[in-house]
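cache lookup: miss for this entity combination. No prior model stored, computing from scratch. Input as submitted by user K.M.:
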Amino acid sequence: MPRAARRPAFVILGLTVALVGAVMAGVAFGAVPVSLADIVGAVTRALSGRGGSGANDALVLGLRIPRVAMAALVGACLSGAGVLYQALFKNALADPYILGVSAGAGLGAVLALALGGVGAIAAVLVPASAFVGATLTMMLVVAIATRAGRMETLSLLLAGVAVSYTLAALTSFAMVMRRETMARIVFWMMGGLQSATWQYVAVVGVMLVAGLSLPLAYSRELDIILLGDERAGQLGVDVKRFERMVLASASLMVAAAVSVAGLIGFVGLMTPHMTRLVLGPRHRLLLPASVIAGAIVMVLADLFARVVLAPVELPVGIVTALAGGPVFVWLLMRERRRSL
Amino acid sequence: MTALGDVALQYRDATLGYHQPVVSDTTLAVHSGEVVGLIGPNGAGKSTMLRAVTGGARVLGGTLEVLGRSLATYDARSLARVVAALPQTVSATFRFSAREFVEMGRHPHLGRFSDLSAHDRAVIDQAMERTDTARLASEPVDTLSGGDLQRLTLAQTLAQEPTVLLLDEPTSHLDLNHRLQVLDLVRRLADEGLAVLAVFHDLDMAARYSDTLAAVHDGGIGPCGSPREVLTGALLGDVFGVSAVIGTDAVTGSVSVTPVLRRGETPQPLGVRVHVVGGSGTAARLLRRLVLEGYEVTAGALNAGDTDHEVAVALGLRFVPLPPFAPVDAHAEAEAAALAAVADIVVVSATPFGSANLGNLRSAVGSGAPIVLVGSLGPDRDFTNGAAAALWADALASGAVAAATEDDVMDAISEVSGR
């Protein structure tokens, strides 16, 4: 057992401190740098009801903080979903992007966007539609990959990829049919956090909490399911019910992330894997630690996307894919002796 | 064996399987304090009977009761507090420590948000000590050997504190020492009141550790009873298609099974008849070898209790059976002579001769068939004051072939029979 796993509280505390640091950096850096004093001042003024009186208050409170908060939430959602998929499918390569769930959520979101709806309605309708898309896609991929009650790693990944492509085509079709919304959708699809607002932060935050709370309560079952479905049943896990709960929770988190940030790959793959390497496989620690680590990764990736070619902004999905692709290949190559 | 406890697990006219029934109309009771062994060929449904309890297979008809309540009234957690199962194989592709792995066995006893209590930890400690895995506690399970992992999984099942334990060929990956260790432990747990239903492939182990054996074949349960009642030559022929010598293990006193011949193993008959004079276990291997090469084999007089007698029975040979220690009297000698007279070749194995079995040698030498004599008849084999030596010398004088080893015997036989 890795030594760190004996002190879960310390690990979580350390990660939280790191997240606060990343958030501060994310708020401070950008096209216009903001000093730490300005940030603290803006937050203090906002909390005491005198928001907006400082020089940089509008930038900090209206743009930077919602954006960084959104990045953190999206990273947390993707990483949390990745942990759940990897446990349920006993597969270190499982991740919302590779399984096609992101694409499903994306199609759901695009349909909602294309059918109209703006403002508060969109803020609820888009994630709801993304959730339906994610859930249906997951069911489809599992059905395709399951043959005679068994699910092979390769067929699961292939089914995910095949379904992803099909859904991407449908998404493009939906976009072409509604040309007037196309630019907005394209921008969103590439994976960006530019449109972050407090309203979306609230919606995604609620979905993260909703998607995470049951799996956190079932962390022991998440450990036991790694022993195989039949063995988990022998040890007292109601496998079918547990599977449905986990898949619904994961879909909820993927839908939350995708509906605000588009398709962002590999965060849900890399972060849980790295966290597991360091902290071991016990979900009681792994799940919350991965969620926080995912938030950190995403905040830093978004910061990088904003500043590397400033004033031009890269879609954050490009950054995560550039970093995550090689990691995926590395995982694939050592897959034969993989251990969760 | 002490008096049996209550029925812990009861199959009542149960039909079990997956989409199709695998075993039908099965009735079997497992009592507390009892080890019931399931034996039978591969694919007969032994594992299905276990998996029907823990949810891997379905109950398609009849009932299955655990502690007097229908299986359907249990949910996964309440069932796991009563029934634990040790699977055939365990794979570990995760980095849990051995202790964390065993802790998973406490799951059905723990509340959703409760942590391991002092009692839980004591149960885990004891489970690991009894399975000799305590020293592995901090090892990652994915680095353990198959045997360690199997014993660790047993510890995991013991952590469940079950009333019923299901074992599916529990020791197939263990070396001899650990195999005995695990089965001794299972036996002890049963003596303490656990009800055990176990699938065995090794019939000797099944006989040694079970109170009751049930043979599963042809889609149902066949004979069921004590090992001595169930493990008979007829059953082994019916269920496994094997001819076997059923004996008693000299040390443990349990039934021992030595397979002699597989059904379908006998080749085309050569049309050559070999009569073997044996005794004291000296002809057992030769009898089997001759049958395997396609000779038609008969044997002289053999006493019950002699290995040669058991092998001759298992091989289905014609011979002259005698009660234990009975002498070859005139009647038996005449019968043996009749068998020898129609043989193409007569072989005298390296058995010692005394007054009781001299008739066997006489019937062989007097048969007129070509004779192969194994070894030499020194004072270590001749307890007849020279009578046997005289017959031996006569035979050699009239052209008998002397053979030193079993191979020499086979060579001599094929030479004499012209093959």
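stored under new cache key. The radius of gyration of chain B is 28 Å.
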